[in-house]
Design brief:
alpha/beta, Rossmann fold, Nucleotidyltransferase, domain 5, eight-stranded mixed beta sheet, 30% helix, globular
Length: 463
């Protein structure tokens, strides 16, 4: 880069302060800076407002982004957010994390432009009044009122897509910007956004910028590859599956959904002709079953399902967080559906410490009489889902987020041993996946239900 992005701030501080700070963009990173700061490079266009970076592992995604958000924060006063999938990841990877060059990511915000740091909130206040705050999309609704002018979504393909939908209207209103950085995770929301960005750029929409850089396209300042074939072979020798190599280093969206419990089955439903994910709305000739996962201080998830010829038709997925059970009940009963059964997990019978009332009793008081599911092992429940999913159809309109949830339910990755653990990651997809597991556990016997009836006894269900 021939000149600092913000040379005015260089003059006002000291001669040693240049933004970006202690960072020189590589050739493949420069187009991003051109799109973000066109006037600094003599380009006669407005800065882009949506940036999508599908860059391979260790291509410098976060180092580039923390420098860019700092420069943006000094260019225009506002609140800026830097989000990873989880709050704990934001602290570990960015707030305390160190790059391959030995420099802490957060130190790319030079002390000379910092007014104050708040460690507990992971917030940096700049001398011009801007703030840069780190956090997780697992609690995106806790950032209400921040009115951000810019957001970085790091590892977007692993994030709850609802976070983007939550902030998007704010950024539209204040003409703010967003950066999405990630490697692929199959045909999930990251893939859909990639297709949108590519299409917008191809038709000449300068509000959008996208960059897809794999290991064959990235070079260091001296022309050497960022990741060598020897590096990749070392990962393979250490146990990295070939599909993950294609995904992480060659940006393949078609390498399979590594670690996802149900991703292969969702992809098979999409590939089926006619697709099992499409226009499958509520049919008033058939009753509706609901399957719940009940959150207390977090999300409650509900699937709405009809039995069409013995097969589940998923007509709607609902998820809300931090509201009482009575509000969820009110939502369900407000729908124009002819309900026949409501399935709930076994912990609905636990008594509240303060009131002594179970949520089962509370729901019954407000109009829903649940069938309580037996407590099966997680593995048995997952196998029940895998047996049921190939028989399902999904309404792409009302169950779109639910499909993302099932795609996002994944095993934990052990980076030390280069393998997936036999345990799920507790993430944004967990509640919806648990609710669907309840549906699979309770599906046996549904085909015999023809009229309203009292809750079944499901203590001895076999699959």
């Amino acid at each position: 880069m021939e000149q600092p992005i913000l040379d005015d701030w260089q003059d006002k501080a000291t001669d040693s302060i240049v933004l970006p700070y202690k960072y020189t963009p590589r050739d493949y990173q420069l187009p991003l800076w051109h799109a973000a700061f066109p006037q600094q490079f003599g380009l006669s266009m407005e800065a882009a407002r949506r940036f999508l970076l599908v860059w391979h592992r260790r291509a410098g995604k976060d180092k580039t982004s923390i420098n860019l958000v700092t420069a943006k924060g000094m260019e225009e006063v506002g609140n800026y957010l830097y989000m990873l999938p989880e709050q704990t990841q934001a602290r570990k990877i960015i707030w305390h994390g160190i790059g391959a060059d030995g420099m802490r990511f957060i130190d790319h915000i030079p002390q000379e432009i910092i007014r104050k740091k708040y460690n507990s909130e992971m917030l940096v206040e700049l001398i011009n009044g801007s703030t840069i705050q780190l956090g997780g999309s697992d609690a995106y609704d806790s950032w209400m009122g921040t009115n951000p002018r810019g957001i970085v979504f790091s590892e977007f393909s692993l994030q709850d897509p609802q976070a983007w939908h939550y902030f998007r209207p704010i950024l539209v209103e204040n003409r703010g910007w967003a950066i999405f950085i990630y490697t692929p995770r199959g045909h999930n929301h990251g893939f859909e956004l990639y297709k949108i960005a590519k299409k917008e750029v191809e038709k000449g929409n300068t509000d959008w910028f996208y960059s897809n850089i794999n290991v064959d396209q990235s070079k260091r300042e001296d022309g050497s590859p960022v990741i060598t074939q020897k590096d990749i072979q070392s990962e393979i020798d250490a146990g990295m599956p070939p599909e993950m190599v294609r995904q992480e280093f060659y940006n393949s969206f078609d390498a399979g959904v590594m670690g996802s419990y149900y991703g292969d089955l969702i992809e098979a439903l999409r590939a089926r002709s006619p697709s099992s994910i499409g226009h499958y709305p509520y049919d008033p000739r058939y009753p509706v079953i609901t399957a719940w996962d009940l959150g207390i201080s977090d999300a409650t998830a509900i699937w709405f399902v009809q039995n069409i010829g013995g097969s589940p038709r998923i007509i709607e997925y609902y998820e809300e967080r931090n509201i009482p059970l009575t509000e969820h009940v009110r939502y369900v009963l407000s729908k124009p559906y002819n309900y026949i059964e409501h399935l709930a997990p076994h912990d609905i019978t636990v008594r509240d410490y303060g009131t002594g009332v179970t949520r089962l009793e509370l729901a019954m008081e407000h109009g829903i009489d649940f069938t309580v599911l037996p407590k099966l092992s997680r593995d048995d429940g997952i196998e029940a889902v895998r047996a049921l999913l190939p028989t399902c159809t999904f309404d792409a309109s009302q169950a779109e987020y639910g499909i993302e949830v099932l795609m996002g339910y994944e095993r934990q990755w052990d980076d030390k041993f280069k393998r997936f653990r036999d345990a799920p990651t507790h993430n944004w997809a967990s509640h919806g996946a648990d609710a669907f597991r309840g549906l699979a556990i309770g599906w046996t016997g549904v085909s015999e239900i023809e009229h309203y009836r009292k809750p079944r006894v499901l203590s001895s269900i076999k699959h």
